[in-house]
């Protein structure tokens, strides 16, 4: 008998169908959903993040969505603290906590109660300033190439445009002399405080890429350019981590006259496909996951039954 509190995770690459499946699961289990998405926390960034609409929630409570302005700091430490608070609250009311989203590092931090190494704050601030100055002078391409040199395994699982994580990998290396990828691997070996089911959704790669392309087209029709234009008009800098997110950076470049609309669209689609590939690379490195491949099921109902059966076998429900 596993007496640890229950936790279900629904993750996988972008555009694989995590949102709708997690809602269906929550309705079956009287669950509530904690978003593990590094962009959906920001208010006013709805279209480019494929943020769930109210009518799509079917009354299921969702947490860690629309909690910050685009210029407020958000990182894995903040996510872990807030997510753990949500889990405790959900469990206290006899509900099932479900983490849904594609940010693997965030999920790992909660699932294995990851410890973040404490460094001298003065030295850390000094290195952070130096890295930010180098970024401003030489650009993200240079910083990413540097990360590939000092920690290729970490560079492999993050997107080049994720400035925050690129700098985090370099900062860890400069502070400790070690590799963040190796630190993460060590943390993966920790025993989880939860009795969990870690579902990684997947599908035929061509279908995922097709849905990504269609999703980008839908975002453009819904007004992605206007959303980015409004954010810029409010004074949000193009250098903010939030504004460097997929779709926002490319559309801001177009609005600033640095590329054509067509080029921006192709970049968004290409970089999102690359991001999906990196997400799968991350999840393949995780242990105790259960792949839920859409190619094995005729519909979402069959997939849902499969997940519920697995949860019963683990004593989660």
SSE arrangement:
Blueprint: E1 6-11, H1 18-29, E2 31-35, H2 54-57, E3 62-63, H3 76-92, E4 96-100, H4 104-111, H5 121-150, H6 152-156, H7 163-176, H8 180-188, E5 195-202, H9 205-222, H10 224-233, H11 248-255, H12 261-285, E6 289-293, H13 300-313
Parallel strand pairs: 1-4, 1-5, 2-3, 2-4, 5-6
Helix pairs in contact: 3-4, 5-7, 9-12, 10-11, 11-12
What structural keywords apply?
about 325 residues, 2 domains, alpha/beta, six-stranded parallel sheet, globular, Rossmann fold, single chain, 6 strands
Outline of the structure:
The chain is an alpha/beta fold. It folds into 2 domains: 6-114 and 190-313, Rossmann fold (3-Layer(aba) Sandwich); 121-184, Histone, subunit A (Orthogonal Bundle), CATH 1.10.20.140.
